[in-house]
Specification:
- The complex is a heterodimer of chains A (about 400) and B (about 290).
- Chain A has two domains: about 210 residues, Response regulator (Rossmann fold), CATH 3.40.50; about 100 residues, Response regulator (Rossmann fold), CATH 3.40.50.2300.
- Helices cover about 45% and strands about 15% of the residues of chain A.
- Chain A is built from 14 helices and 14 strands.
- Chain A has a seven-stranded mixed β-sheet, sandwiched between helices. Chain A has a five-stranded parallel β-sheet with strand order 2-1-3-4-5, sandwiched between helices. Chain A has a two-stranded antiparallel ribbon with strand order 11-12.
- Chain B contains eleven helices and two strands.
- In chain B, helix 5 crosses helix 6 and helix 9 runs parallel beside helix 11.
- The termini of chain B are far apart.
- The chains are: A alpha/beta (about 400), B mainly alpha (about 290).
- The interface between A and B is large, with 34 and 37 residues.
Amino acid sequence: MSRIPPFAPRRALLGLGVLAGLALGAAAPAAAQRAQPCIGASWELTGPLAHTGLSIRIAVETAIEEINAAGGVLGQPLRLIAYDDQGEPARAVDNARRIGERDNCIVMMGGFRTPNAIALREPLDEMGLPWMGVISAGTGVIEHPNNANRWMFRVSMKDRWVAPFLVDAARARSASGRIALVYEGTAWGQGAIPDVTAAMRAANIPLAGQETFNIADTDMSAQLIRLRDAGVDTIIFYGVDREATNLLRSMDRLGYRPQIVSAWGVGVQFAQTAGPLANGVIVAGTYTWMGELPPRAAGVLQRIQARFPQIRTAADIPLPSGTANAYDATFIIAEAIKLAGRLDREAFREALFRVNYQGIVANYAPAFERRQERHDAIQASAYQLFAFHDGQLLPIAQTPYGRARTN
Amino acid sequence: MEAILQYLLTGISVGSVYAMVALGFYVMWSAAKAVNFTYGNVFMLGGVLTVVLVELGMPLLVAAGGAIAIATLTGAVIERVFVRPFNRDANAIGWMLTTIAVGIMMESFATATYGPLGRPLDTPFMQEPLRIGGAGIYAQELLIPVALIVLTFGLEAFYRRTVLGRALRAVALNRTAAGLVGIDADRITLFAFGLAGGIGALAGFLIAPVVQASSTMGVVVGLKGFMVAIIAGIANAKGVVVVGILYGVLERFIEGFLSSAARDAIGFTIMILALLLFPQGLFGRKEVRKV
């Protein structure tokens, strides 16, 4: 009978442990590895929403250039790796996988569409990849139903906060108190109904009308006739440039001119397509690059123009608020990497709660807080009203429409 | 009453656009028993190219003429390259796939080069709306039904009184027999697709000042124009015109008295029911073949 050496099982166990450790190490999520100093982005760079991708890209590239000219992050240049998702959620998820697992970027930046951002909730959670939204304003992007959002942050507006802001603006301008909601028949437009209704209820004013339209509708006379007959003098509008122009054309046909107070889907192109009819239309947003700019913002605009020849004037920035948000978000990311002190996603996430940064949209002090509602950096107090005047989108104070009307 | 007049006026205007597009389908179908499914994009060329040429400094009418000429050429090229080689057999359907594919390519190219957003096309007829019985409408919108009437009578005269028009009718009636009497059916078909391209671009140019010229402006109009042609009976020009206008008016009345959101659902349902009751189309005649 041979004697089994007493250490043999211990060696075998040790060997198995090493193998298991190696296997686990290979399977460990990218988050546990050292991340790269890059911002991975999934934007709408081609297709019908290409102007939104452009609005973000010009800001991020300009900001990165400034950050790298000042020494980069942790002694390394910050890079941008941008992928096109054409506004399709499935592509956005594919891009997130690439960014999180192949490129191993420290953070991902989102684009225009809320459905894309919503589709990223689970993949981001699985990868432990921080995400920064700069336009998509859907409430659910940040306020997850399970109240457990860890990785998604935003430097943009939030629909739930926008609705009371629009209602306040509408109330201030309605002489009769007869305010109606007109919205596009999309998830965004329909999502505004509960928010606006709740805000109106809080203000103790009933909605005097509620009308919808389809994307690409050219005539909205029927909706407007109903609103006119209901005595509506102010319309809260959720739509984009093309349909906003068609709404104004229909108003012009009817000789009916209620005040329009619009969510920020209406961009600068509206001034060109609607012409003089756009005068006096009020839009909520975070920034405009037109009118008198503070010196810092004027410098940013100059650098954007120098870098992107297609941006000849501020009128060529399709979504001015999105551009400003993206510029601030890039600096917040750089600050967080510096505060984290290492290229680690968990440390980066923790650092986001310690970032204090004076941006061009707002003073972020701090940028984020731990409760998910405050994963939104821009507070409602920083929202602004702009108005179209003579082909420009200006801060309302720089237009004749600053005062509440008394029609 | 004022509202009814408003729906009538805007309905006739938008219905006239559907009718013009449907007329284009009629012209193509008559000659080839095939159509160009990218026709909505040819319609788009009329608006978009006019804007581009105006931005390059051309006067409006010259730009519109240029856009229509390019669209005419485009229609002919599509027939020669993407329809004819795939329409050799009696039951060939390859042309459906190729023309749809070309349409997607055209729209993508226009979006990439022209941009995704609409652009204005200023005309003197869009300055102030006209007031008619309390309703309002732009003169530009009234121009469209006028153009439709002129076009319809012009086509009728062309088909009946010119050699080329008669050749077109002969090809439509019997392609083989037309060939036997010396008519070059292929060339006639090429001409028909070019003519349809011009008609589509004319419609696009006329409506662009009202709705903005954009790379996607032809998607819905192309679909509805085709539907109108089928419901009317694609081989009947007058029927196509009548159904087009009626459909535009119907849409406005659905919006006004039922629901804006359900407009297309209700409109399409009514059209499908009409097709069930009249399988040859409202104005179509049962095709009789000698065997």
